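Human: Here is a favour to ask of a fellow structure person. Comparing notes only helps if you start from a blank page. I am asking you to supply a protein in sequence and structure-token form. Write it directly below this note and I will take it from there.

Assistant:
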Amino acid sequence: MVAKERAILTHRTPSVQPSKPNSFYQNLLPVHPGMTAAQMALRSQLIEVLKVQDMIGGRIPIGRLWPLLNSADSEVEDCVALIELDPVLKERMLRLVNISIDPNHVDTTTLSSAIFQLGFSKIRQLTFNISVYRQLAKYGRPEKWHQFWARSLFVARTTHRICSGYMRTDGSEYVAGILQNVGWLLLHKFFTREFHQIFAMGGSVLEAESRILPNTHAEISGALCALSALPERIVQAVSLYPTPLLRNFHPDLPENSPEFLAAVLHLANELADLAGFRLFQEGEISLESIQQSEEAVWLEQFGPSPDFALILREESAQTRELYPLFFGEKIAA
């Protein structure tokens, strides 16, 4: 079945995104020194699969809403018109704005009022979550990875929160958190044999990836970001996050540095393990090891260290509360 799907995807490629030259696709995944012939062949197959992915779904209302939410010239009325065409987004937006502990709170029933109360930043998060989830939910999840999207939400929120302590955020930090692990889903769906081989080897998942795959799950996730026309900073940060400090570079302002965002993504993933959103066993982790990690120490050159204990406690609770609203299902135990 997987081989047949690969063949179908390859056949569909010319009619899906004809405006992008072949060189664009060939550059989606880096070629690493020492790649074997088998890995190069697998890289070509990965590129064929990647060609037909559309993370934002630009032909549907929610996909048309995304660029509108990111435009400085957008009007509330334009957003309302598109949200009205998507009953799921409309219902979740109204539910989100009507969560209140104020006993005198009056439920909001109009989209215009909801947009004003939530703000474009929160609506961007909700829209992106639903759009990505719809696109990738059809790929399924590995059998025991019930908390995949809860982990993604936690990492997104935590990444945004840590970054906001160092700079003015623009929403790209949240998006990077949602997308940093989606490469696993494509591997599980279209390259099932290789996916299971990685976890059957035992030991370090990163080492197993490098032996079996031409590119890491993070690089595949980064390629998906590139195909979605997301900023280069996001593409690089997502691709780098498992080992953010390996390459040589000069520290830049946090808002300009892919390495800074990658280091925060790395720390957010470790906090996700502590929060109970672990996907697989990859060594022991503790709050102390996170606080003393190379990534946490490296961040200190930009300002005071985050309060990891407070972030862990508060973002874990927020993730469990918001997950059903953002993804339309109960959080897995």
About this structure: Residues 1-19 have pLDDT under 50 and may be disordered. The two ends are 31 Å apart (CA to CA). The CA atoms of residues 154 and 204 lie 23 Å apart. Residues 111-137 form the longest helix (27 residues).
